[in-house]
Design brief:
By secondary structure, the protein is α/β, with parallel strands linked by helices. The protein is built from 16 helices and 19 strands. A hairpin with a 7-residue loop joins strand 1 and strand 2. The longest helix has 23 residues, at about 475-500. The chain is globular, with a radius of gyration of 27 Å.
């Protein structure tokens, strides 16, 4: 369920007012395997998700390099870089790494009501880049992975773990930061601030007061330290905030609270925030348009927007050993498809050998269909659109010309609800009344929930029973074969591959189904992480 903080942010963003400084897109070419790939910022908070080495950090670093920016002021008097950030700080030439002369970071920004302005940073010979003088001014707050390094492991901090030292000064958090920290962590702190010793006044140590005890970052939990150092940053209005692996050191509850806190901050200060993540919790907190999945395909990168958390997690995991992937829009389409397979496949194991993956928005499905058609996946894959979606040559439509709920309800009603009463153990009159009343609602996506509540049964259980009855008694054999036969053919081809010495060959499907072929597995390139202390080896031209 969408949080109230995210609803408020969405409503403000949809009003098309505010955000006078806005990055519309960034395009990366010639850096770490990126080739003219554009990242669009479709929402005030954008989450980049993908496997390690997919290029999430590269996107954040490229955005940071676009702007002229001074380091943000901190509550603590912590040592700051002396110069602004340059592209050369993130993409240095080394004896192992060669940055091509054609490398470029292109971008489009909007300042106030004037038309968008496009610019670029371009690699010069040797270490230098062109385009620094034309960079727009905007506060950049870049929070990299150095924050997760334990206090005791940081350069110069081990000397501070000496009880003989004295506290030279203590900087309290301001009231707003103090309140935010308490709300996110869920502790009633008496005090939080940054302490300095008489040995070294350049290295702050976070100190917490809770339940009458006072303890430092040397003893605090990693999450407490990470959040305290993050919230001590002063973020001016209209800034752009970049956070690498935002969930690091935080358990799921803190992840949810942090992203909601950032949503409020983005709304009040008109910020753009871009985070990288591997967390389904973070993705679940954000609306679909805020999720961007970086996929590595045959050495190139493609960004797919609007993915579900489930889709993203499936793409980053390899526990399942299924032989065929079936992509569907949501859980209703998933159950409809599975019941078609169970009712009409010639082999009982057909459904067990397939993995269903929910992709979310239909636009994601159509992009996936193109990738299947282009042989981009390493296993047989099919993409299914709901029946009411426009037919796509690269995808297959589920039966009917309406959403799954309408197709199933109307077909079962025409057959007097079949044996649905026996499947869910309810009286016929109750079933007929509940389902018929539900069909009077204008939004067919609400029909299952309404009926289930009337019948005192879970929505999943009711929909499962309805799809099973529909697939067994309403769906014609010809319609079912269009769905099931290509899947069975693909699975048979996979089985022959494992039992015969010959290598796997392309699976040829009938004319009305998308082409399906075996694509070579891609190898991931490792994406460099930022050092704990960034070098400043760039320069202006």
């Amino acid at each position: 369920m969408e949080s109230k903080e995210m609803r408020r942010l969405t409503a403000r963003w949809a009003s098309s007012t505010g955000w006078p400084k806005r990055l519309e897109w960034v395009e990366i070419d010639g850096l770490r395997g990126w080739t003219n790939t554009r990242f669009d910022l479709k929402y005030p908070i954008m989450a980049l998700v993908g496997e390690n080495g997919s290029g999430k950090s590269t996107v954040l670093q490229s955005i940071a390099a676009i702007y002229k920016s001074k380091p943000p002021r901190q509550i603590a008097r912590r040592r700051q870089p002396k110069k602004p950030i340059y592209a050369g700080d993130f993409f240095p030439e080394t004896i192992w790494d060669h940055i091509t002369r054609d490398a470029a970071i292109r971008y489009s920004i909007r300042q106030g009501n004037i038309p968008p302005i496009e610019g670029s940073l371009r690699k010069k010979p040797q270490k230098r880049w062109r385009g620094y003088k034309d960079r727009p001014e905007r506060q950049v707050v870049f929070i990299d992975l150095s924050r997760i390094q334990p206090i005791s492991a940081r350069t110069g901090y081990s000397r501070l773990a000496d009880p003989r030292l004295k506290e030279k000064s203590f900087d309290n958090f301001d009231q707003k930061s103090f309140t935010r920290l308490k709300q996110i962590i869920g502790k009633e702190y008496q005090v939080v601030g940054m302490s300095y010793t008489d040995l070294d006044e350049s290295r702050p140590v976070p100190v917490f007061g809770h339940s009458g005890n006072r303890y430092s970052g040397f003893q605090a939990g990693a999450g407490e330290t990470v959040l305290a150092e993050l919230l001590q940053l002063e973020i001016p209005p209209y800034s752009i905030v970049l956070i690498d692996e935002i969930e690091s050191s935080l358990h799921p509850r803190l992840q949810r609270r942090l992203i909601r806190d950032l949503a409020e901050l983005a709304r009040n200060l008109e910020l753009q925030i871009v985070v990288s993540t591997h967390s389904s919790v973070i993705l679940d907190e954000l609306p679909a348009e805020a999720r961007a999945h970086i996929m590595q395909i045959e050495g190139s990168r493609k960004i797919v927007y609007g993915v579900t958390p489930e889709f993203a997690m499936t793409k980053m995991d390899e526990v399942a050993q299924h032989e065929c992937d079936l992509y569907v829009e949501d859980e209703r389409a998933e159950r409809m498809l599975l019941e078609i397979i169970v009712a009409h496949a010639s082999n009982r194991d057909c459904a067990l050998r397939c993995r269903t993956i929910r992709y979310g928005a239909s636009s994601v499905g159509k992009n996936l269909g193109i990738m299947v058609f282009q042989n981009k996946f390493h296993r047989p894959s099919f993409v299914f659109l709901d029946g009411d979606e426009v037919t796509s040559a690269e995808c297959m439509n589920l039966p009917g010309q309406d959403p799954p709920e309408r197709v199933v309800f109307e077909a079962l009603k025409a057959r007097n609800w079949e044996n649905l009463k026996d499947r869910i153990k309810r009286g016929f009159a109750d079933v007929a009344d509940a389902c018929t009343q539900a069909m009077s609602l204008p939004d067919c996506h609400e029909w299952v929930t309404y009926s289930a509540n009337k019948l005192v049964i879970s929505g999943d259980a009711l929909w499962h029973a309805m799809c099973s009855e529909w697939a067994s008694h309403c769906l014609t054999g010809d319609e079912a074969r269009k769905i099931v036969q290509p899947i069975e053919d693909a699975l048979d081809k996979v089985l022959r591959t494992f039992t015969a010495p010959a290598p796997m060959v392309s699976v040829t499907l009938r004319e009305e189904t998308p082409a399906l072929r075996k694509a070579p597995a891609t190898t991931s390139s490792s994406d460099s992480l930022l050092p704990f202390e960034q070098s400043q080896n760039g320069g202006e031209d």
